Amino acid sequence: MPLTTPDISLELAQSVLAAAIDKAITIDTKMDIAVVDAGANLKAFARMDGAWLGSIDIAIKKAKTARFFDMPTGEIGKLSQPAGPLYNIEHSNNGLITFPGGVPLKDANGAIIGAIGVSGSSVENDHAVAEAGAAAAR
């Protein structure tokens, strides 16, 4: 029997991106926002006018990190502290980001279909914008 993996469509990835942009506007911040598919490949991206150039790579890595481990990047960060079970994991996979702003994307059935990564403000704002985008996937 062939394996099938649920995946995010371009249309849904763009909806996730739009919801995240709306949240960023609401909280008056400029963000770089990346959406990856089930294989952790970049599917959609936006750099809001005035968002930091350095946050482009961070947003993409947050999305990939959330998908690689199917958990929010902030949770991985808690596990990767000194003496933690995942200490130094951020050095794997060509560099991970282990602070808040990356969230797995789940469909209405709870299947992981990708992830969103957001960077450009405080980690609290990054996470809030990522969560707003993730809500649009359900």
Task: Give the second-level CATH assignment, the architecture.
Answer: 2-Layer Sandwich
Radius of gyration: 14 Å
| Count of individual helical segments | 4
Helix amount = 25-40%
**Strand-pairing-aware structural class:** alpha+beta
Q: State the strand order across the main sheet.
A: 2-1-4-3
CATH C-level class = Alpha Beta
Number of self-contained structural domains? 1
The end-to-end distance, rounded to whole angstroms, is 28 Å
Quaternary status: single chain
CATH superfamily caption: Haem-degrading domain
Topology:
Blueprint: H1 10-26, E1 32-37, E2 42-47, H2 54-69, H3 73-79, E3 102-106, E4 112-119, H4 123-135
Antiparallel strand pairs: 1-2, 1-4, 3-4
How does this model look, in words?
- The protein is of the alpha+beta class and 138 residues long.
- The protein has a single domain, classed as Beta-Lactamase, CATH 3.30.450.150.
- It is built from four helices and four strands; from the N terminus they run αββααββα.
- It has a four-stranded antiparallel β-sheet.
- A hairpin with a 5-residue loop joins strand 3 and strand 4.
- The longest helix has 17 residues.
- It is globular.
- The model has no long low-confidence stretch (mean pLDDT 96).
